[in-house]
């Protein structure tokens, strides 16, 4: 079979996925690397290791393809959003890559909100003004050392690093990743003058923006030798992981949303033109000229159950479970929680253990349980945490409705949706049918499909809806949906009422505010 490699460079691993025109995943190779936390509020990657991992993953999956008798006809790139790294003129890193989770720029985001510039920036760029965004990161970097920011030959993110590592040549970035920087005017189709001024950079320090379907000339000679692929193998510049997650689960037609629910979570819908909601609760990023993705990401997903496992089920002083042991403990707690009725006997969880993004975009939020009574036990706390995450995604769905973006069906992927409780709770909180994708490799498969489209093997991205295999829908339980509908306004009211208290508590710590 002729296959395309979807090369997905993420925050903790690079995955290489192969698939053909039948949209079935043939092989997956993962090359991991650590998220570095060298100090309070910091979250970085070794940029050189990230580049090396891309070559290693590509070489390993190409070898598997040869063993199968498959022919690699192209490579399509997928990259995590919101990273920032200084580079030389050839795209080699001059320092670590600062990831979306780095919190050091939180005060600069708050300043842009305080002086009234944030709404217009969000409206033009589609990216919330938040510590995660490269715009805000650069404004923080500029405050530390303006000469360094202005004198660095290039600034980019994960995609620019990988393109330079694989292809060399002039620095390029796809329109999707550019649209997630807070520096790119979606409708004008160019770097935004005001955002560049705030960041302290020039347009020529950023990548040349290409369509996501642009085909780069091929592989560098050393990469071709390392991978065993021909040097003229087409490389499709590709898109960001968020928008490709929609494509990978076939959620590209109107009214079909994609939910990613792993350690963190997100809900996204494809629309035909750039769309930013009036309340500035949603992001808007590019997929193609005819496909734009609006949605919201939440910091806390399956991580809330992992926290509960360690906090509530591990004896003090005992080593924390890892790997399969940790997964088994999570599953046991979820089974216990499934016996608790919807609403957790009046217990409400604000699941902001890692801060929160959508729909709030406020730095410094912390988690809380409200309504605790002496009869509440561990299963109630676990179920309330699961419900809290699903309610955050339901608030994103509410923002869709307020923006005039209807949703009729949800397609879900991610490690958490292996749990029936997570899927049932999500369906009831959203009050929508949820269909779980057959393959967990949503972003990598999405890159393959975009690559096949760019190379002419898949004429229409909308065809992915029919190609991608999903399970039968899990329908929302009406009684549970009614309970969550009653509780959701309390989530909003309690978050608004407690924001000052939670951020004041956060300020008592030395580390910068969590994102």
TrEMBL record:
Superkingdom of the organism of origin: Bacteria
One GO BP: carbohydrate metabolic process
Single GO term (MF): phosphotransferase activity, alcohol group as acceptor
Keywords for this protein: Kinase, Transferase
Cross-referenced Gene3D superfamilies: 3.30.420.40
Annotated ranges, domain Carbohydrate kinase FGGY C-terminal: 257-454
Ranges where the Carbohydrate kinase FGGY N-terminal domain occurs: 4-248
Protein name per UniProt: Gluconate kinase, FGGY family
Source species: Geodermatophilus africanus
Taxonomy of the source species: Bacteria, Bacillati, Actinomycetota, Actinomycetes, Geodermatophilales
């Amino acid at each position: 079979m002729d296959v395309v490699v979807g090369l997905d460079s993420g925050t903790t691993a690079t995955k290489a996925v192969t698939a053909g025109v039948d949209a079935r995943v043939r092989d997956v190779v993962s090359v991991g690397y650590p998220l570095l936390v060298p100090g309070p509020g910091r979250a970085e990657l070794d940029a050189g290791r990230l580049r090396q991992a891309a070559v290693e993953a590509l070489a390993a999956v190409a070898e598997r393809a040869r063993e199968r008798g498959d022919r690699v006809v192209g490579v399509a790139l997928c990259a995590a959003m919101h990273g920032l790294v200084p580079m030389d003129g050839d795209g080699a890193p001059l320092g670590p890559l600062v990831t979306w989770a780095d919190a050091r720029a939180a005060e600069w985001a708050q300043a842009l909100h305080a002086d009234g510039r944030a709404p217009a920036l969000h409206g033009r760029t589609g990216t919330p003004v938040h510590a995660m965004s490269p715009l805000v990161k650069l404004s923080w970097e500029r405050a530390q050392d303006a000469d360094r920011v202005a004198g660095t030959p290039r600034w980019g993110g994960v995609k620019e690093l990988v393109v330079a590592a694989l292809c060399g040549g002039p620095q390029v970035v796809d329109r999707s990743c550019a649209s997630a920087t807070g520096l790119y005017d979606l409708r004008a189709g160019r770097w935004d003058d005001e955002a560049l001024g705030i960041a302290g950079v020039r347009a020529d320090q950023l990548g040349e923006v290409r369509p996501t379907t642009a085909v780069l000339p091929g592989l560098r000679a050393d990469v071709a030798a390392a991978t065993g692929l021909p040097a003229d193998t087409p490389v499709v510049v590709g898109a960001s992981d968020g928008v490709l997650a929609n494509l990978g689960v076939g959620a590209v037609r109107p009214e079909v949303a994609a939910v990613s629910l792993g350690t963190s979570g997100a809900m996204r819908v494809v629309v035909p033109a750039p769309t930013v909601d009036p309340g500035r609760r949603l992001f808007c990023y590019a997929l193609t000229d005819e496909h734009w993705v609006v949605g919201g990401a939440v910091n806390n997903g399956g991580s809330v159950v992992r926290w509960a496992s360690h906090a509530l089920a591990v004896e003090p002083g005992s080593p924390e479970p890892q790997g399969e042991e940790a997964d088994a403990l999570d599953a046991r707690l979820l089974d216990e929680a499934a016996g608790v009725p919807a609403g957790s006997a009046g217990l409400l969880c604000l699941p902001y253990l890692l801060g929160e993004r959508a729909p709030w975009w406020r730095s410094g939020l912390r988690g809380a349980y409200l309504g605790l009574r002496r009869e509440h036990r561990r299963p109630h706390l676990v179920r309330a945490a699961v419900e809290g995450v699903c309610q955050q995604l339901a608030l994103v769905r509410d923002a869709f409705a307020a923006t005039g973006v209807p949703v009729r069906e949800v397609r879900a992927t991610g490690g958490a949706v292996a749990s029936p409780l997570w899927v049932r709770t999500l369906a009831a909180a959203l009050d929508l049918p949820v269909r779980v994708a057959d393959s967990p490799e949503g972003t990598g498969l999405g890159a393959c499909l975009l690559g096949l489209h760019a190379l002419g093997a898949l004429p229409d991205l909308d065809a992915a809806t029919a190609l991608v295999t999903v399970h039968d829908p899990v329908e929302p339980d009406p009684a549970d949906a009614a309970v969550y509908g009653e509780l959701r306004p309390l989530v909003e009211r309690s978050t608004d009422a407690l924001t000052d208290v939670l951020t004041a508590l956060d300020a008592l710590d030395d580390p910068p505010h969590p994102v």
